[in-house]
Design brief:
Low-confidence stretches: none
Radius of gyration: 16 Å
Shape: elongated
Number of domains: 1
Number of helices: 5
Strand content: under 5%
Order of helices and strands: HHHHH
Helix content: over 70%
Number of strands: 0
Oligomer: single chain
Largest sheet: none
Structural class: mainly alpha
Mean pLDDT: 81
Length: about 130
């Protein structure tokens, strides 16, 4: 018998991997070529894109690690995933002036990840 909410857990796992991968890519781009984001208005929001890139890179790596903890189950993976998705959500708020559609899309997906993990995450007694 399939566990209740298994689809939400799978969704959270996949979205944490996808968001983490994109955060890693954004971080590498911001570190290596900060002029890429400056063309889109980041110079009005951030003073040092290299530092922001390191934050993004580290958060992306942590998000991928959280995804693997979520798929293993248990309370630790559940809370780790919720915390990482919450931090990602807050970091995306700062991207709204630069890439509004992308940032709002990621914010909505992070909210769904938080919902799925809060309601269905962790180990359930069968």
């Amino acid at each position: 018998m399939e566990r209740e909410g298994a689809g939400w857990i799978m969704f959270a796992w996949i979205m944490l991997i996808v968001a983490g991968t994109f955060a890693i890519i954004d971080g590498i781009v911001a570190i290596a070529n900060s002029s890429f984001f400056t063309e889109y208005g980041a110079k009005y929001v951030y003073t040092n894109l290299s530092t922001w890139g390191w934050f993004q890179l580290i958060l992306g790596i942590v998000a991928v690690a959280a995804a693997f903890n979520v798929v293993r189950g248990g309370e630790w993976g559940r809370w780790f995933g919720i915390i990482v998705a919450s931090i990602q959500l807050l970091m995306q708020i700062f991207w709204i002036p630069i890439v509004p559609f992308w940032a709002l899309t990621i914010i909505v997906l992070d909210m769904l990840v938080i919902y799925g993990l809060a309601v269905y995450g962790g180990r359930q007694n069968a």
